[in-house]
Specification:
heterodimer, A: 333 residues, alpha+beta, Enolase-like, domain 1, 5-stranded antiparallel sheet, 4-stranded antiparallel sheet, 27% helix, 20% strand, B: 212 residues, Ubiquitin-like (UB roll), DNA polymerase, domain 1, 3 domains, 5-stranded mixed sheet, 7 helices, 37% helix, elongated
Chain lengths: 333, 212
């Protein structure tokens, strides 16, 4: 691990000032906020992350989870994943979020990992994690050995010729289906970013994963008031029964009235280069009977642009069945 | 090993004491070799560390770690993980290093009563917090009920993952967990046992939960 300067700012303004001069907030950042550390310390040990300054935000008052005046939910940046998953308001109104978080990592990691850290979770692509290998995400311009190499677990949606790395988060998939908003405070003020705009497709700059700029501090995430009568399910398929990243997952939030789907929000995990919202699949369902045939149609639509690699063609059918089954579970819950 | 070395063994050479003693001297000699690099000083500039001395490094920061109810005033390299600090600096070696990347759970300790992977956090992030390791759970004469249950159910084979398993299991008792074995398995999935003692581990935990 490289040496670094460690500081613990007294407030958010000091934290922002402490990192505003960084060259980038993306891969290769020389300054990093640290909260749970479960991604950052791991990657610092591998020399994938080599910040020269760490700013510890754990003691800032950013860990609250509270209902908002409009009936939504405000989730602090450093609220631990376990606290969020077990929060009464989440269990009651946003069960898909609780299910997604509890399907990821282990109890120990969920006690450490934070809301903001999970939003910034890095890919598990083996080439990204190994500095001895080329990787366009880690070192732009060096190439992507995954495209012709070990790619069984990698993405089939949103890929480019430069990068096929999967976004590994479960929490973000649920947040995408819940249309969460990410609140950022920076040196030029505050802004609210819809989760769909927060993560970037790899394109020709896979080293840029989010819209964050130097000094940007995620302060909290907000959720809209729950939709009355909505059915929510997170279904995750993986190589092991527990403690494993998704090969395919689906977060569905649907409202069904008189046997017909009146509202649908669908996001997929384990298959995309970012948490993958599927408005196409949602559109297929609106006004249709909540049944197996239409759920399969929605799944076909969600995967219609899927581009498999040499080892992961199976993911297309797996993701279709995952989504169709999640919709069936929601409809019958 | 020379006869002199053998004679310097403690009078009660239990395996644990022997390993701790030799382990400490090995660590000290390795550290002595490593210090000039970390200290960024010219080779030969630093004096050899006296036996048993704590290595010091340039850029070391002072922290107070409260481990098992006792405050430890330490100076550590900021890069030191909580795991390495507990094992190498404070010399509490019950907590084990397995993968060192948060994938095996051998390093599980409690911070403010909650279980965490001590390999994925920096020691200096826990200044002033309450840390509990396997050594702080109970005493050899009066085992924690979970330790006793692991013994009764043979919840280990080689023992390397056991302290992490027990720290996880004790924390689980205070977490939301369904009554059946499947719920326990799910919440214990962050602790890998290469020997495959899982059925006995689950049985031990379930016994403690039933008796609680």
């Amino acid at each position: 691990m490289h040496t670094f300067e460690f500081s613990r700012p007294k407030d958010a303004a000091a934290a922002i000032a402490g990192t505003a001069e960084a060259k980038t907030a993306q891969q290769g950042a020389d300054m990093r906020f640290i909260a749970g550390g479960t991604t950052l310390i791991d990657l610092m040990k591998l020399n994938v992350e080599t910040p020269s300054r760490l700013v510890d935000i754990n003691r800032l008052p950013l860990d609250q989870i509270e209902t908002t005046p409009d009936g939504g939910l405000k989730i602090g940046a450093t609220a631990r994943n376990s606290d969020l998953a077990h929060h009464p308001a989440v269990l009651r109104s946003y069960p898909v979020l609780s299910q997604a978080i509890l399907s990821g990592a282990s109890a120990q990691l969920r006690n450490m990992a934070t809301t903001a850290g999970n939003l910034l979770q890095r890919t598990r692509c083996v080439y990204f994690r190994d500095p001895a290998m080329p990787c366009n995400k880690r070192e732009p311009g060096t190439g992507c050995p995954a495209i012709t190499g070990s790619n069984r677990t990698l993405a089939i949606l949103g890929t480019s010729e430069h990068c096929i790395a999967t976004n590994p988060s479960d929490m973000c998939v649920a947040l995408a289906a819940l249309e969460a908003t990410i609140h950022v405070q920076g040196s030029k003020g505050s802004r609210a970013i819809p989760i769909g705009d927060f993560h970037l497709l790899p394109g020709s700059t896979p080293n840029r994963e989010t819209v964050l700029e130097p000094g940007d501090l995620i302060t909290h995430v907000t959720l809209l008031p729950p939709v009355a009568g909505s059915k929510q399910v997170y279904l995750k398929l993986r190589d092991r029964a527990s403690y494993e990243f998704a090969l395919a997952s689906a977060a569905v939030v649907v409202t069904i009235a008189g046997g017909k789907v009146t509202r649908a929000r669908i996001a997929l995990g384990g298959v995309g280069t970012k948490p993958w919202r599927s408005p196409e699949a949602e559109a297929v369902l609106i006004g249709k009977t909540a049944g197996a045939a239409n759920f399969r149609n929605a799944a076909e639509m969600a995967m219609r642009n899927a581009k498999p690699q040499s080892e992961n063609k199976f993911k297309i059918e797996l993701a279709k069945r995952c989504l169709a089954h999640a919709l069936q579970m929601a409809a019958t819950s | 090993m020379s006869d002199d070395d053998l004679q310097s063994c403690p009078p009660d050479p239990t395996r644990r004491k022997f390993l701790l003693t030799t382990g400490t001297s090995v660590a000290a000699s390795l550290a002595a070799a490593y210090v000039p690099v970390l200290a960024n000083s010219a080779p030969g500039e630093s004096e050899p560390a006296p036996p048993g001395a704590r290595p010091t490094v340039d850029g070391a920061v002072p922290i107070t770690l409260r481990i098992n109810g006792k405050d430890h005033q330490l100076r550590i390299d900021p890069r030191t993980t909580l795991l390495d600090c507990i094992r190498e600096t404070v010399a509490l070696t019950g907590t084990k290093k397995g993968c060192d990347h948060g994938q095996c759970g051998a390093c599980t300790v409690h911070v403010n009563g909650r279980r965490v992977n001590s390999c994925l956090t920096l020691a200096l992030m826990h200044d002033g917090e309450e840390i509990t390791t396997i050594e702080g759970l109970a005493t050899p004469d009066a085992l924690h009920p979970m330790q006793a249950a692991f013994v009764a159910h043979d919840g280990y084979q080689c023992g390397y993952c056991t302290s992490g398993q027990i720290m996880s299991a004790v924390a689980l008792l205070k977490e939301p967990c369904g009554p059946d074995d499947a719920a326990v398995k799910e919440l214990m999935s962050g602790n890998i046992c290469r020997c495959g003692a899982y059925p006995n581990i689950v049985a031990a935990i379930q016994q403690v939960r039933k008796n609680a």
